[in-house]
Amino acid sequence: MLLNIRDATMASQVIQDIVTRHGKLNGLVNNAGGQFMSPASQLTSKGFSTVVDLNLNGTFNMCKAAFDGYMGEHGGQIVTIVAETRNGIPRAMHTGAARAGIINMTKTLAIEWGPYNGIRINCVAPGLIISSGMKNYHETMVDLLAHSHWMNPTSRYGTESEVSASVAFLLSPAASYINGVNLEVDGGSSLSKGNPEGDELKYNPEGSRHPVYVGWPEGVDNVHGIKQVDAPAKINELLEKYKAIGRSSKI
Q1: How far is residue 56 from each of residues 42, 51, 53, 125, 164, measured CA to CA in Å?
Q2: 82 falls within a domain
Q3: InterPro entries of this UniProt entry (predicted)?
Q4: What does pTM read for this prediction?
Q5: Terminus of the chain with fewer CB atoms < 10 Å: N or C?
Q6: The domain spanning residue 184 has which CATH number?
Q7: How does pLDDT run across 40-91, given as a tens digit for each residue?
Q8: Dihedral sign, CA of 237, 242, 246, 250?
């Protein structure tokens, strides 16, 4: 099913089709979006508007369609994937502005829609996640990522499973008292950037001591039959190191 989330009419039609086919709409996960890297000084008005229209306006269209088409009368859960915006997103100011708008919109909708038959609406803000998206980065950026994974308190990047688990939790009854939050799934990178001062606070450049969570099959089989993410080879090497932490951990 193809959907242009920038088209409010199409968004409403898709929700109507789902409700007609299944008789209900329990949850909505907003995970569509897009951006491109550009310094703010080189960003055009058209480029800014295009990203905001897709990420912010498109998310509103889907939320409103879900409310009008089912959740306003029957309740439901909404989770939107955003990005960590607390410290700004250099070279991605357009998407940072849109994501910050989504976070505030989520808080407002939680207040306004919460009384409507148990609607809950939250955000998940992933940090750097090992995924196919890293294939879009220039080789120089991949090299940088491969050697800077320790620059957060967890000393590693996250996995798709760790983000998915957070979304599943927020959609579940276990999160029934959580409404209007932005859950940062980022290993603590939103708290501090780089190596903090003081030996006792330094992150571990030798590697993470935090076991990785891979709850679903990640990626595809390579020639050795090892499950990998569709990401650059250097990034997959990191993932294998993370998995080894879990195998050797006493936790």
Answers
A1: 21, 8, 6, 15, 21
A2: yes
A3: NAD(P)-bd_dom_sf (IPR036291), Peroxisomal_t2-enoyl-CoA_red (IPR052388), SDR_fam (IPR002347)
A4: 0.87
A5: N
A6: 3.40.50.720
A7: 999 999 999 999 999 999 999 999 999 999 999 999 999 999 987 888 888 8
A8: positive
